[in-house]
Design a protein that fits this description.
single chain, 161 residues, 2 domains, four-stranded antiparallel sheet, rod-shaped
Length: 161
């Protein structure tokens, strides 16, 4: 199951449970006597009982949409803050964190890369930079945890691996 399917299933299940409670306990409180006579007079072809039933249907539709939208917003914010929940929703395709790698350029000089992965329901954002060994310089946007020298960079690398 893909991440968006797992997310939709979670929100839909919670919406159905909440709507069951609303339909079972709140909608029956709407009685035909709750419809004002002025509304009944504006729509002469419908009785108060028919208007009550139509209002129950409209209330249920609006409550379902509102509940789904509210739960989806809460779940999205929660997923972004709780790594365990994020790994549950994304399953085996979950990837996040900082990765460090090395490759050699055309002159056989080593270059170190630092790549930071962030995943959400929209996709994966990868931010990274490269350190060239001989020049002791950074290339690319500044990282969140920036090392000022190559020695600090290599110290961070050995601490991470």
């Amino acid at each position: 199951m893909q991440a968006i399917q797992r997310f939709s299933l979670s929100v839909s299940t919670a919406t159905v449970a909440i709507m069951f409670v609303i339909i079972e306990y709140l909608v029956p409180m709407l009685q035909a006597s709750a419809i004002p006579t002025t509304v009944s007079q504006l729509i002469p072809f419908a009785t108060a009982a028919q208007l009550a039933e139509a209002s129950k249907l409209a209330l249920t539709a609006l409550a379902t949409f509102g509940t789904y939208k509210l739960l989806a917003g809460i779940l999205i914010k929660t997923i972004d803050r709780v790594p365990y929940l994020k790994s549950f929703i994304f399953g085996p395709s979950y990837v996040e964190g900082t990765w460090i790698g090395q490759f050699r350029d055309n002159n056989n000089q080593p270059k170190w890369t630092v790549e930071h992965f962030e995943q959400n329901l929209d996709g994966i954002v990868i931010r990274g930079y490269v350190v060239r060994m001989e020049l002791n310089t950074l290339h690319g946007p500044p990282p969140q945890r920036r090392s000022t020298t190559l020695a600090e960079f290599l110290h961070i690398r050995t601490a991470v691996t």
